[in-house]
Amino acid sequence: MATLGPASANQETIRALYQAGVDVFRLNFSHGAHADHAARVKILRDLEKEFSMPVGIMADLQGPKLRVGKFASGSVALKPGMKIRLDLDAAPGDESRVCLPHPEIVKAAEKDSLILMDDGKVRMQIVDKGKNFLLAEVISGVKISDNKGVNVPGTVLPIAALTEKDRKDLNAALDMGVDWIAQSFVQRPEDVAESKKLIAGRAVLLAKIEKPSALEHFEAILDLVDGIMLARGDLGVECAPEDVPAIQKRIVRKVRHAGKPIIVATQMLESMIENPSPTRAEASDVATAVYDGTDAVMLSAETAAGKYPVEAVSIMNRICEHTEIDDTYRRIIDSDRPDIEEDSSDAITAAAHQVAHSVRAACIVNYTTSGSTTLRMARQRPAMPILCLTQNNNVARRLCLSYGVHAVHVTDVTNTTEAVNRAGALARGQGLAKKGDRLVLTAGVPFGTPGSTNTLRVAWVE
Question: Is the per-residue pLDDT at 451 higher than 80?
């Protein structure tokens, strides 16, 4: 998954990113005008026609931005032990005080709470509190300047996850026809419930996990959304760095077992914003996310504003491919299979996975209307590709985010025999299989009925 921005706004670069391995493109609504995003959506839809393959598009909403106010001199020097008053007065600040234009923080924060600024570079502790102010003591940090971000770890802030800007951006993104909406600053189930209602089925919803409070309500949030993005850079500001790796493993496992796509994001190849190759630690970080079982890994500034966007995608793609053919990867995945649900569709899906492994099938074929069968198969993390045939183009686009899925929009398949023949031709055409290979296919009878997966068939590619 790659983010589009100034470094990747033109048709040639976007096409090169797609060919280098991008399955889903992220539009960051924190930046850029609606017209800019709409132009990129058009380029991506033209790519679909050129390659006859679906392309996933995600609109990432900004969410509320908590920032300190301005200083008379643009910044102030800090040293441990100095005290600074954080109040609601909009006047420019100095070494003694500065505006904190968020009464919700003043109200919610308690004495001894921490306040972090500038992505955690500045740490302060609240030593006193009044009706309209907080008095904070500097613990660490050398400088604070205008409009730097503010975090209050351990405090659930009574702030709506959707701002007025988000609502406008959401409507614009839905009108553009994006496939996924990513919601920022999710703290509670209520945050995503409101978004789900506003989306009204026109796209699917993904919650970004970037606040510790979201971890406390994670199961309830996961129940309501269609996917999860683990935004480790933001989460790492409020969580201890040593806790983030374990959080990553736990979240990826829970989302995978729920049969929903999980993205591991932020700071994955960050040095490639300026350099043509990543550090070995960054390469290991990408591989670790794959070993953990993630559906997707994401590039942010590397492709949006970096000097080497195509190279970043290419090397990330190679890391993923090499990790998945490692014996250690397969042992890790096979040791943690999701439980089979008391559902005939899930039983058929699990059986198809086992049969495909036993007969060494080249790929597993799902004919699906809603996409649920393919999501069930993706959570098994099979060793072979999943070829998804669906009559719903929106479903095909959304499934681009899921593990191992090659989704194809088909409109001329009306029975299982036709599905087998079409699957064989598509598998050969996409290089997933060759003549004489076996395919394992699942479908539903009556054919094309959502939620009716009840047929398993082994076929040969002709």
Answer: no
